[in-house]
Amino acid sequence: MKVIGISGSPINNSNTDRGVTAVLEATGAETEFIKLIDYTVAPCKGCLGCLKTNRCVIKDDGIELAQKVKDADALVVGGFTPYSTLDSRTKAFLERLYPLRHKYGFLVGKPVASVITTGVPEGVEGMPPAGEMGAKAIQFFAMEEGMNYVGHVVIEGNVPCIKCGHHKECAVDGIEMIYGPGATVESVGIHSFEDQEAAFLGASDLGQKIGSVLNAEGSDKG
Ligand SMILES: Cc1cc2nc3c(=O)[nH]c(=O)nc-3n(C[C@H](O)[C@H](O)[C@H](O)COP(=O)(O)O)c2cc1C
Q1: Taking CB atoms and a 6 Å cutoff, what residues make up the pocket around ligand 1?
Q2: Which helix (H) or strand (E) holds 143?
Q3: What are the tens digits of pLDDT across the range 50-69?
Q4: For 2-159+190-221, CATH number?
């Protein structure tokens, strides 16, 4: 049994990467971690050139990744939420799994879990629900492909404005926008996946759920 984890976060060893890895480790299965920034994956162009062949006509790494997903027994998808929705790299990757759909439904029943990292924490009044938007994008993809959606965890990440050094003079300071007037880099702090019990335990739980589904499938096969 093999589970692959995909991270759409371009940042090295990011919260998203670590969350995806935690889910993978808890599956107890053989795993492979893939970082989308290391691949070139254009979005689907809607040409339907894959209808008869189950293979995309775009000659980039999307073909190899679709093959890896097809061969895997389960999938973990990690993304982040620029402008409060799923990042474009992760979205393009999901779109490029469309060739696996036609006639055979190669994704049907495959377990999938997601990890979403946001700059905006859940429940901030007046701000979009980034975690929910990102998670729903993957959940609805899974639903439309007939996959077994196991669930998601949302990690509170870091608004990029903490790195810029000019947020106090900035007309669109994300720190005060999210955390209120007077908030500073120091008062907000740096958010790490490992410090967030709900996300940490949630990731482990998701991995164990995937492991249980795969074990049950293994026993059925005999
Ligand atoms: C261009 C850009 C725009 C962003 N806009 C939002 C946003 O609207 N809402 C949000 O929750 N996070 C936003 N973020 C923050 C990311 O979600 C956050 O940095 C997240 O921690 C990245 O995940 P990582 O730490 O795993 O790389 C934005 C990040 C970038 C780079």
Answers
A1: 9, 11, 14-16, 80-84, 117-120, 130, 157-160
A2: helix 130-144
A3: 999 999 999 999 999 999 99
A4: 3.40.50.360
